[in-house]
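Our consortium's second objective concerns turning raw sequence data into structural hypotheses that experimental partners can test. To show how far this objective has progressed, the report includes one record in full. It was chosen at random from the queue rather than selected for favorable results. The single chain below, 268 residues long, was entered without modification.
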Amino acid sequence: MKALSRRRRSPLAVFAILLIGLLVTGGLYAVAAGTVNKADAAESNQSVTGDAESGEKLFAANCATCHGMSAEGSDSGPSLVGVGGAAVDFQVGTGRMPMQMQGPQAQIKPKQFDDQQTADLAAYVASLAPGPEVPSDEAVSSDGVSDEELAEGGTIFRVNCAMCHNAAAAGGALTRGKYAPTLKGVSEKHIYEAMVTGPQNMPVFNDSNVTPEQKKQVIAYLKHIETQGSPGGQGLGSLGPVAEGLFIWTAGLGLIIAFTIWITTRHS
C-alpha cells in the first residue's frame, strides 16, 4: 500500500496524465478540423447565380461602412471598383470579410454569409467595373489532368508559390505579423480565385504569366498531395527541419526533466 501511495504522489504521474490529455485533445481537434475543412470545400465548389440588386442591399448594410456606399473606398477600406466578383467570392466565401478586427491581414473565420448572399455580393461588385470573374466548375476541375500535367503543376507551384506557402502547401510565416495560410482543405474555386486576384500579400497570377490550363494543373497538384498523407511517418505540420528539430529538442528536454525528477524521488 505504501509503494502504491508513493507512485500516486510521484511527479511523473502528473506529467504522464498531462501528456495523455494533450495528445487526446490534439487528436480530436485534428479530426474535427479536417471534417469541417472538407465540408466547407465541398460547399464552396457549388455554383450559385448571384443577383446584383440583392447584393447592393447587402453591401450597403454590411460593407459600406469601410468600403464606401459606392464601393469607392475610404480610410478604413480599399476601393472595390474593378476587383471583380472573384475577389469578393474569395474574401467573403472564406470568412475573411467582413473583417473581425483590424490587423496585418484579414483572419480566416466562419463565414457570415451563405453561398447565395456571397454570390449576390460578388455580382454587385462585378457590375461596378470589369474584373476577374468567379471561375466556372470546369475551369477549376482537375478531372482529366494527366500524370505529366500533374507533375508540371508541382513544378509551377514550387517555382512560384512554395517560398511562401511551403513546398508541402502547409503555409508559413511572413514579415510584420503576416503569414501565408495553409492550402490544405481550401476549395479548388478559392485557390483559383486567389491566383487571379492576389489577396493579402499574394501577387496576382494573371493569364499572361500563368495560363488557365497551368492554374488547373497547380490545383490538381495541390489536391493530389492533400490526399497522399505522410508516407514517412508523422508530418509535424510539414514544416521541415525546424519542426523536427523543435520536436527533438522539446522531447529530449522533457526526458531529461523526467529523468531528473525520477532520480530525486529515488534518493528521497
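The partners drew two points from this record. The longest strand covers residues 172-173. Residues 48 and 116 are 6 Å apart (CA to CA). Both points have been shared with the crystallography group to help prioritize constructs.
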